[in-house]
Amino acid sequence: MSSTSAFFFFFASTFLYANAFNITRILNLNNEFSTFNNLLSQTGLASTIDSRQTITVLALSNDAMSLFSDQSTEDNKKSLSLHIVLDYYDIKKLKSLNKKSVILTTLFQSSGQAKGQQGFINATVMNNGDVMFGSAVRGSLLDSKLIDSVATHPYNISVLHISSYIPIMNPEGPSDHGSSSTPLPPQPPNDDDYTFDEPPSPPSSTTKPFVAAATAATAKPPSAAKANTTTSGVSAINAPDLAFAFAFVISSFWFFMTV
Hints:
By secondary structure, the protein is α+β, with helices and mostly antiparallel strands. It has helices at 3-19, 23-28, 34-42, 45-51, 73-81, 91-95, 107-110, 208-218, 224-227, 239-258, and strands spanning 55-60, 84-85, 101-105, 120-125, 131-135, 144-153, 157-162, 230-231, 234-235.
């Protein structure tokens, strides 16, 4: 085996080891989560969690699992998938929000079955320092409290103990929680790190061509030759120039390969 192959094998093995975890074994260390653990296996979510490189599981203790005994396996899968966040969040990271709210994307959102903001949950640091969770659907309450950390493996998996389940809310409004005194914005977030109290970013120079294009649309149309020279403020590349650039790159690559 060459030194290059040996290095690659060592790197790949180290990477796989660093990213390997088993949610069933993690939860087996604490009988308090036995019901939650069993349902993850029954619904197939355990293997889904293990296949992810970065994940946060909001675990429920046995005394908070009564709802799930009356639901079908499919409904349990939907409910539990809302408690699986597609990013790494430990207590330190959540506490560092500094009394801000953050929208978290869950496995339920990635399933394609969520409507509106159903697949997102809101995590907020309260004035007293508590971290509260709730549905990101407008009008939902934040009534699930972060209790403690069950296990962490930065930055692959974090298992957090929360006080109560987070319901899948009706996207048209609250289904069983009533109204919230601090309603959420109606628009879905773009990513996991969206915070409600961040000021909007100032317009960048890259947005100006689009404004100009919108203004030009209401004016007299330019000539066809002029319209083909620019697209959203970026010069168009002619076919001969593109072919020359491609040939130059290929020839340079071949030269360095033969040296």
